[in-house]
Amino acid sequence: MQRYFIDAKNIEGSYIHIDSYNHKHMQRVMRYRSGDQVICILPDQHVYIYEIVDMDKGILQQKEELLENNELDVQVTLIYGLPKNDKFEWVLQKATELGVTRIVPFLSKRSIIKTDAKTFDKKRERYLRILKEASEQSCRQKIPELTSLITLSHLQDYVSDINLVAYEEESRQGEHQTFAKALQKDYQTLTIVVGPEGGFDESEIAVMKAAGFETCALGKRILRSETAPLYMLSVIGFSRELMSSWDL
Predict the structure, then answer these.
(1) How far is the first Cα of the chain from the last one, in angstroms, to the nearest whole number?
(2) What's the CA gap between 216 and 34, in Å, rounded?
(3) β-pairing verdict for 15-17 and 59-66
(4) Which of 21, 32, 73, 191 is found 20 to 30 A from 154 (Cα to Cα)?
(5) Whole-prediction pTM value?
(6) How many CB atoms lie within 10 A of CB 104?
(7) Furthest-apart CA atoms within the chain: distance in Å
(8) Residue closest to 216 by CA, chosen among 185, 154, 170
(9) CATH class of the domain whose range is 75-245
(10) Is residue 3 within 8 Å of 41, Cβ to Cβ?
């Protein structure tokens, strides 16, 4: 059953007057008719089945609440060195599917793409739509937050219980335990930092260490910029959701 996130302004009691974008999707893509049912996620993250009572006018009526919680039990912030545009959009989508809470893009000294906060914000609507659609597809109850473009001088604003930087030099030097040991600690918030295609400048690593971040390797191999955050999110998800169910 198709899922839709609903804004508070579109809710009137037990009825929803669907917005124009979702209305068009229901009619032209899903080919829904009056009497069909959809799943709606409300701003309070409660999930309900709604019946379409008038497809032409886009009116839905609440029928049944679904008791589900598909979110990670910890909050994960991804601070990501801005890569080429198509790679960034791909990471937005996949990181959402893997449960990220917040994505903080930043410009690194070695970022290939040349942009600024104003130019980045012009694409915000497109980026937010990618996050919304990926959240619907992966059956989440919340859409990840996407902040404005930052520099590392604002890193302190995103410090968590655990703070890690994926750094390729750690792999080259044979370090393979920091990430795993960090995930064994008791924590509710976690921030991971991944650089752009060119990696981090040593001065950037120094800034992050001074802010309390710890560098770590991601196994024996060197991963691409767009692969590293998904690797880290997958490992975090495994450690929080699947590890405890293993009969070791």
Answers:
(1) 36
(2) 54
(3) antiparallel
(4) 73
(5) 0.91
(6) 20
(7) 63
(8) 170
(9) alpha beta
(10) yes
Pairwise CA distance, residues 19 & 89, whole Å:
24
Q: Which residue has the tokens 């490992």?
A: 235
Tokens 């809710």 found at: 11
Structure tokens, 131: 């996050």
Whose tokens are 């929803």? That residue is 16
Q: Identify the bridge partners of residue 17 per DSSP, sorted by sequence position.
A: 59
Tokens of 244: 């405890």
Tell me whether the CATH fold assigned to 3-66 matches the one assigned to 75-245.
no
**Of 112, 120, 93, the residue nearest 233 (C-alpha):** 93
User: Which ranges constitute the DSSP H helices of the chain?
Assistant: 20-24, 85-97, 117-122, 124-137, 168-172, 178-183, 202-210, 228-237
**CA 63 distance to own-chain centroid:** 30
Q: Any idea how long the chain is?
A: 248
Task: From first to last of the 248 residues of the chain, give the pLDDT tens digit.
Answer: 999 999 999 999 999 999 999 999 999 999 999 999 999 999 999 999 999 999 999 999 999 999 999 999 999 999 999 887 689 999 999 999 999 999 999 988 877 777 888 888 899 999 999 999 999 999 999 999 999 999 888 999 999 999 999 998 776 676 778 999 999 999 999 999 999 888 888 999 999 999 999 999 998 888 999 999 999 999 999 999 987 666 55
CATH superfamily for 3-66 is Hypothetical PUA domain-like; domain 1 (2.40.240.20)
Tokens representing residue 187 in the block: 């924590």
Query: Domain extents for the chain?
Result: 3-66, 75-245
Q: What are phi and psi of 149, to 5 degrees?
A: -70, 130
Kind of pairing, strands 11-12 and 59-66?
unpaired
